[in-house]
From TrEMBL:
It comes from the Bacteria. Belongs to the ornithine cyclodeaminase/mu-crystallin family. InterPro entries: NAD(P)-bd_dom_sf, ODC_Mu_crystall, ODC_N. It comes from Aquamicrobium soli. This is Ornithine cyclodeaminase family protein.
Length: 332
C-alpha cells in the first residue's frame, strides 16, 4: 500500500494567511483537551551539540486525542543567528497516525513555533489578565515576540504598547513593524523599567546569554499579569512572593530540566505543586478558576507545549487541503 505525507514548507504556511482568530482558536482547543485529560505530553528534552555554538535543540512530543494526531517537533534555538541574518529558531513538525505510527505530515515549524507561543501568551491574557487591561509592556523583540504582541492586542486593543530589547536597532525596528501592522503607535523604550513599570500585562521574552535579574519585582503593578518565559531567567526570586496565583502550561515540564525563567523558583520551592494554582488548560476547560478579581496579581509561566504545535499544525493542514496548498510526497 502506498503511503503519502503532506508537506508544507515555509512559503506554503505563509500562503495560508492564518487569521489571528484561527490561530487562537486552534491553540485554545488544544489547551481545553489538555485540561480535560485528553492528551499525552512528554516533557521536552534538549540536545546541546557544543556550548561554543550558543544554541541547542528542543524535542517536543505529544498526542491530542480529539484531533486524532500525535506529533514530534524539533526546534533549534540559537541566540547568535541574527548575526547571520537568520531566525533564532528553525523547526520541523512531524505528525503521525497515533494508532499505527504512520507518518502523515511534515511542516516547517518555524512560524508555527512563533504563532503558537504568541497564542498561548494571548490566552494567558484572556483567562488571567484584567478584562480592562490597556497597557502592555513587552521585553524581547525576536522570534515569538511579534505574535505575543499582535495576538494580545487582538484580544485587548491596548491604549499603550511599550517594547524593549537589548539592541536599539532591534527594538526600534520591532516597534516600527508592529506600529504598521497594528495600526497604532508602539513605543520602543530604552530600559526594562520604562517598559514594564505600571503595565497591566507584562511579557518577558528576553534572550539572555545567562541568568540575570533585570526585571525587578518592585516594578510590577498590583493586579497585573506577568508572563516570563525566557530560556534564561530575567526575574528576581522575590517575583513569586507577590503573586496571588501562579499558573503554568504544563507542570511536568516546568518542574524539570535546567532551563527556564523560573528554574530557580522551582529549585528553591517557591513554585511547587503546593503553591501552583493550575495549568492553563485546566482554566480553559473550566475546571479551575482563572482571574477572580481585579486586584489579583497573577503569574503565568509557559515553556511551550507540543500539544500547541500539533493543534496548530493540524489546523494548518486542514486549511491547506481546502485551499490546495502544499505538496504530497511519496513515503513508501
Amino acid at each position: 500500500m502506498a503511503i503519502y505525507i503532506d508537506y508544507l514548507n515555509g512559503l506554503d504556511i505563509e500562503a495560508l494567511a492564518m487569521s489571528d482568530d484561527e490561530i487562537i482558536d486552534a491553540i485554545e482547543a488544544g489547551l481545553i483537551a489538555q485540561g480535560r485529560g485528553e492528551t499525552v505530553i512528554e516533557p521536552r528534552v534538549h540536545l546541546e551539540p557544543d556550548p561554543a555554538f550558543r544554541g541547542h535543540f528542543n524535542v517536543l512530543r505529544g498526542y491530542v486525542a480529539p484531533l486524532d494526531a500525535a506529533g514530534v517537533k524539533i526546534v533549534g534555538d540559537y541566540v547568535d543567528n541574527y548575526k547571520l541574518g537568520l531566525p533564532s529558531e528553525f523547526g520541523i513538525l512531524n505528525l503521525f497516525d497515533p494508532r499505527t505510527g504512520t507518518p502523515r505530515a511534515m511542516l516547517d515549524a518555524t512560524a508555527i513555533t512563533d504563532m503558537r507561543t504568541g497564542a498561548v501568551t494571548a490566552l494567558g491574557g484572556k483567562y488571567l489578565a484584567r478584562k480592562g487591561s490597556k497597557v502592555l509592556g513587552h521585553v524581547g523583540s525576536r522570534g515569538t515576540a511579534y505574535w505575543n504582541v499582535r495576538l494580545l492586542d487582538h484580544l485587548f486593543d491596548f491604549d499603550e504598547i511599550r517594547v524593549h530589547s537589548r539592541r536599539p536597532e532591534s527594538r526600534n525596528g520591532f516597534a516600527e513593524r508592529l506600529s504598521a501592522d497594528l495600526g497604532k503607535p508602539v513605543k520602543a523604550v530604552d530600559d526594562w523599567q520604562a517598559c514594564v513599570e505600571g503595565a497591566d500585562i507584562v511579557v518577558e521574552a528576553s534572550r539572555l546569554p545567562e541568568p540575570q535579574p533585570l526585571l525587578k519585582t518592585e516594578w510590577i503593578k498590583p493586579g497585573a499579569l506577568v508572563m516570563p518565559y525566557g530560556t534564561m531567567s530575567a526575574v528576581e526570586l522575590s517575583l513569586t512572593d507577590i503573586m496571588d496565583k501562579m499558573v503554568v502550561d504544563d507542570w511536568g515540564q516546568c518542574k524539570g530540566g535546567k532551563l527556564g525563567s523560573l528554574r530557580a523558583h522551582v529549585e528553591s520551592g517557591r513554585l511547587s505543586e503546593q503553591t501552583l494554582h493550575a495549568e492553563l488548560g485546566q482554566v480553559a476547560a473550566g475546571l479551575k478558576p482563572g482571574r477572580e478579581s481585579d486586584d489579583e496579581t497573577i503569574l503565568f509561566w509557559h515553556r511551550g507545549l507540543s500539544l500547541s504545535d500539533i493543534a496548530l499544525g493540524k489546523a494548518m493542514l486542514t486549511k491547506a487541503q481546502e485551499k490546495g496548498i502544499g505538496q504530497r510526497l511519496r513515503f513508501a
